[in-house]
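Please study the protein below:
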Amino acid sequence: MSFVPHTDPERAAMLKGIGVSSIEDLFSDIPEHLRIEGLALPGAVSEIEAIDEVETLADRNVQTKDMDWFLGAGAYYGYIPAVVPALAGRGEFLTAYTPYQPEVSQGTLQAIFEYQSMTAKLLGMSVVNASHYDGATALAEAVLMAWKAKEGRNRIFLPKDLHPEYSQVIATYCTSFDIEFIRYEGDPAQAPIDERTAAIIIAYPGFSGEMYPISKASEKAHEKGALCIVQADPLMCAIFKSPGEQGADIVTAEGQCLGNPLNFGGPYLGMMGTTDALIRRMPGRIVGQTKDKFGKRGFVLTLSTREQHIRREKAVSNICSNQGLSMLQTCIYLATLGKNGLQEVAKQSYDKAHYAAQLIDIIPGYHVVPKLFFREFLVETPDSATKIVEALNKKSIMPGLALSHYYPERANELLICVTEMNTKAQIEKLASALKEAVK
């Protein structure tokens, strides 16, 4: 279909209809010093040059194959069965974005339905949506969801041990809202929740890897009339008690570790689940199963609280997306592994991480911080963690994240992640290299 632009008289009529004299007037709410005057774009390049540049960037993704990889911090190196990219890469899936004419898109709707069904069981929630840009935006949406649900309450308790990038996204999302964030440390059950609290957020686990039980904190929140939001590691839920089983009202998660590659930072998959009581306040889309007039199984877009489908002023959120391809890859991954396979992946990650922690904790000068963790743990180092990372990189080992990347004052802390991809030999090589690095 050809593109026919609006004529000048049509533009003038539309501007008059909304009460402004020019297109520039539409941006008057944006402070002048924040407006961009032209884009400093480079000149055009040839197809050969463009492909070379893209391949150069793509090469930065294969470091996990060239190094012993112990870096996590929100993005995890895991095994993806060959069937996942093979099926997700089929033409009918690869270009799919979102079902704007949903009932015609039965294949897309069924994939979303199956994804929702499996992840709802994993997170222990009544319903899961499809979906958000990533775990950080899903959590930010959960904050707004809780704040709107608890009208008259504006306090949100936020753990200090939350991924710093998640905290930044939440702050950006909530800039224009009357929300008071209170940071708490340690056990969420000890947070001073009161009658002004809309919700408490629990990191399960925290950025340091430390895990705290959810039940007591959720009970305390409910006693005060507040909600309990949990930011979870979805793989961990395969072997640990799910957030839903522990009383969570809203659960969010980053789904990258479930069948999506690192991809130099994205696209990722923001997961969100909630209870029946909050289902109509949840952004995103929900697909339901039904029967057509012939009694044949079919799927429908049961709820869609986005402005493209309903009146804008009634939309729950205008900043959410159905990460269709990422969601599909997670759906195929979960279906391929099944319950037992997913538990095996989680168990291997847990066992190997604890083996690594035992070896590292006995090295003079090193101390493993968290008492209870899943696959990631914080280590206090005898020397600058950045120097240790640089030294081990020369030995083709990526030992983890130096926390000074986010917190300059925490120079001697290293966040190490172990997944099912790490072998016993690699773990022992890491411990030996850490010992040598401070001699």
Notes: The two ends are 69 Å apart (CA to CA). The chain has two domains: 68-74+338-437, 83-334. The chain has twelve helices and 15 strands.
